[in-house]
Amino acid sequence: SMLGGLFGSVCTVDVTLDAEPNRKTAPLARDRKGERAYIYTDGEDVSGTAVVSVRPGKKLEHQGVKVELVGQVDMLYDKSSSYDFFSITKDLEPPGSLFESKQYKWRFGAVDKQNETYSGINVRLRYFVRLIVIRNYASNVTKEIDMVVQNLYPQPELNNTIKMEVGIEDCLHIEFEYDKSKYHMKDVVVGKVYFVLVRIKIKHMELNIIRRETAGSTSGNQQTDNETLTKFEIMDGAPVKDQCIPVRLYLTGFELTPTYKNVQNKFSVRYFLNLVLVDEEDRRYFKQQEIFIWRKKIA
Hints:
Arrestin-like_C; transport; seven-stranded mixed β-sheet; 2 domains; Vps26-related
């Protein structure tokens, strides 16, 4: 269009991260399928390049060019409650005019990144770099690039076994134990289920991993979602009294995150092992136990 040509964008902008060739990448988010981003950890520098491209023969008047590094928590069911918990800014260019394209190098040193990036059902935590050309009368020109943040967790010093009993009086009594209560994300759940008393016809038994995401600040409007990540069958057919059934569940195949407790007072992510027994009338008996998940390795 004629007007579009007259008032068309005088400039375009781009921003990239300087990543070493061996820097690992990870998927970005549920809703951005296939998109990957570089992984950074707490305390690492973040550096990159910014480009402001001015159309030939044009003049770009601006109120400054700056680059920001932002840590943000978004409530996906309430876009208005997006919260920047972290932000640092660097000025690249003072207010003035640009007559030609310009490239800038920028660096944020030893950046505090204690929270990991997280993409959930109702909440996401992201870190991104934003390049901004501030304009007086026109709208600002911006470009964002995301990064993934992952942090290693020291091996837990105490790691108790989990022992539990579940029963229905005079019908069913089982005892089960798992070898520990804290698992890294590529760990194996090893345990056993022991049938002390069986007077109901059990059809099968499964072990589920459940992720429970609680989003929203503690007062009132909390959103809780339970997501079953796996249903792992450990027994098919009826057990008999005194039978002992081994359990081995490999955690590698599942989209686990570490356990997150009250991140920025906005959300928590917890994991549970759920032992489910189904009888011939399709009644379900279950016992849930929280486990703690930690990150042993980046990516």
